Amino acid sequence: MHGGGGRGSAARAAGGGGGGRRIGTADEQTQRAINADAPKIPHLLRRIAGLFAAHKAALITTVALVLVGAALSVVPPLLTQRAFDDGLFPVDASGEASGPNLSALTWIVVAMIAVFIVSALLGVWQTWLTATVGNQVMGALRVRLFSHLQAMELSFFTRTKTGVIQSRLQNDVGGVASVLTNTVSSVLGNTVTVISAFVAMLLLNWQLTLIALVLLPVMVIAQRRVGQVRARIAAKTQESLSEMTAITQETLSVSGILLAKSFTRQQSEIDRYADENRTQIGLQVRQQMTGQWFFAMVNIFMSAVPAIVYLLAGWLIAGGVADITAGTIVAFTTVQARLLFPLMGLMRVALDLQTSSALFARIFEYLDLRPSITDAPKAKDVPQGPELGRVEFDHVSFRYPDADDDSRPTLDDVSFTIEPGQYAAFVGPSGAGKTTVSYLVPRLYEASGGSVRFAGVDVRDLRQTSLVSNIGIVSQETYLFHATIAENLRYARPDATDAELEAAARAANIHETIASFPDGYDTVVGERGYRLSGGEKQRIAIARVLLKDPAVLLLDEATSALDTISERVVQAALDDAARGRTTIAIAHRLSTVASADVIFVVVSGRVVERGTHAELLAEGGVYASLYREQADRPEVPAN
């Protein structure tokens, strides 16, 4: 319980003092600028209080523990006074010194030990409560935010950096725990400690209290200056660490290593990392050494305070100004030593509260986002009748949310019908709007005009989960998790049996390849499937979709990134997968969709031609022109 003047305490005080770990790591000006950029959220305090409403009893108990613990912290110095004056050096009625009063001294020592024990137990209890409540609120908030982001529409993620989203989930939500465990406890505890210490000092001797008040501001101001310098260096250190992390992520990823090796740039990457590492070392040394002379002075001052008090007390006693006992002097120096660091903590309270509010504001900003695509109040499941698999566009127009109002719409008055079981292909120049068609069918985006119907029902009247469960998507960019092949396949159906996995893999023409691996279906595919070839990854993606067994299959240029041999193997798997289900293929290579039942030619957001491969060639229009152009290229075989 005794608060000394040690080097560690001085260092902590210079960094902000009193309330444990600080929320911000930047210097005050930078931190205030960050706080000023936080969004303005109505009724923010009320909403913050709502997060802790379920923990009301624990919070009340915590506040009580903080108040009691802070008040108890000044009791030992007062008992020290009694130990000296009543136990060790008592005086009789005539003012003469008598021998130690062992009975009184024993009870005083017992009381002091009891206070230490109670304070320690209260401190453990308070730490457990604050850690439990703070982390439970943080955990619940993190899951709530993650769940909310899962419900956001696709356009939110196309316009928001992944790093920004991760920062909200990790840094901002992680800082919430500090609000309870540090900021609130610091405000309450330091306030009560400072008030109690001043009261105790006044009760002991008001003359010595006035002298102490003159010395304290000098120390507080000096420590704040050093703390600001250290905080600025800490911010630069954090930036350097971030840069080192970025270099690591860039160069030690599979793609980064391949790039460095292919251009023989390994040494330059090593040099870049070494340079940043030297910067980091220099900053770490500066951070450790900043203020060391000051800390030495602080230690000298804190150690000299008792001696100064002894001298001043001697002058007061010799001059007859005050009647000061030995117990009073010892108790006063003990109380005064407890005053500096809580006072430092209180001086930073306003900034910590602003920082806490900024953290909550950024979190609530995301929680207040409303998905632009939601289920209608009376949305229903996809009907499982004879129309299952029919896809219709009725005068559909679409413009991406971030597009200018006066720009050309991506789709303009598009109408078509694809019957159940039919194989339909969409072809045309790049940027014509083909992929947008595949976005509107599963309602990843909302049509700006007209209606999209699935199984005879407007997609806006269907539950999104039911709609998407009936649609399988195979895109050009196959995404596989760093897990086994079996785990990647079961992402479509977690309860699928091994036999069902094998059946799906056989249908996708990949089973024999998987079986040839030493670990078979337990083969780990590596980050983003880098241990597999492009054709193998694509066929695993097809098997994953087949395991889902959707009524409609969307193929978004699923073979455009493959070489000719891999394309043929994957195309055979796609043809097998398309049998018995409605298939919509977005194609760049016309040779892959020549066998389609109907081909739609899209130019500038409009369907300009439709028909079979033979019919469109006979027309001699856009399709025939594109086909002839591709047929002249050796990498695109003509049918």
UniProtKB/TrEMBL annotation:
SUPFAM superfamilies: ABC transporter transmembrane region, P-loop containing nucleoside triphosphate hydrolases. GO terms for cellular component: plasma membrane. PROSITE patterns: ABC_TM1F (PS50929), ABC_TRANSPORTER_1 (PS00211), ABC_TRANSPORTER_2 (PS50893). It comes from Agromyces intestinalis. It is a multi-pass membrane protein. This is ABC transporter ATP-binding protein. The chain crosses the membrane at residues 57-79, 104-125, 176-198, 204-222, 293-318. One of its GO terms (biological process) is oligopeptide export from mitochondrion.
